[in-house]
Design goal:
This is RNA polymerase sigma24 factor. The protein is mostly helical and about 180 residues long. It contains nine helices and no strands. The protein is globular. Mean pLDDT is about 80; it is low at about 110-115.
């Protein structure tokens, strides 16, 4: 199929299994990589990928076509990750220790693709930030998460996300001046 992603999503919304297979083959590789960067548990990333495409199958009819389909797919995957994190945090502690998904910062696909296009000073300034500050910038700037969503994904309070975002901006300004 030579259809663009938006057309594929509309076909999937109409129940076209072949369009779904094409969409999956086209996007599963990069989606699982991005999920693995947010969650180092390989099995959990695969589960999230499957949940993402199950959601796509069920919700594709609601895709309005406003914006790129890849952004919509990533938003679906990110919501699955956030939901998983919330469920892990909501489990009662009396049932014994429950292994939490391991969420950690690592460069996103966008960061790797753009690494060569950064001004050298900006790139040095970004790399001088602590991993915690870079993770907040990645979540709020690159992934476009709200403070509340970033807090859930990163497993820290909302106030911590706000504080780290302010610190990251301040440190970047100082490093670039």
């Amino acid at each position: 199929m030579d259809e663009d992603d938006g057309a594929l999503l509309r076909l999937v919304g109409a129940g076209d299994r072949r369009a779904f297979d094409v969409l999956y083959a086209r996007h599963a590789p990069w989606l699982v990589l991005r999920l693995r960067r947010r969650c180092r548990d390989r099995e959990l990333a695969q589960e999230l990928l499957q949940e993402t495409f199950l959601t796509v199958w069920r919700a594709a009819a609601g895709y309005r076509g406003d914006g790129a389909a890849v952004h919509w797919l990533w938003a679906v995957a990110l919501r699955r990750l956030i939901d998983t994190r919330r469920r892990a945090l909501a489990r009662p502690q009396s049932a014994g220790p429950v292994p939490e998904p391991v969420l950690a910062w690592s460069p996103s696909a966008e960061e790797e693709a753009l690494a060569g296009t950064y001004d050298a000073d900006l790139e040095r300034a970004l790399h001088s930030l602590s991993p915690e500050l870079r993770a907040v910038l990645q979540a709020t700037v690159l992934d476009g998460l709200t403070v509340r969503e970033a807090a859930v994904v990163l497993g820290v309070p909302e106030g911590t996300v706000k504080t780290r975002a302010m610190r990251a901006r301040r440190e970047l300004r100082e490093a670039l001046s």
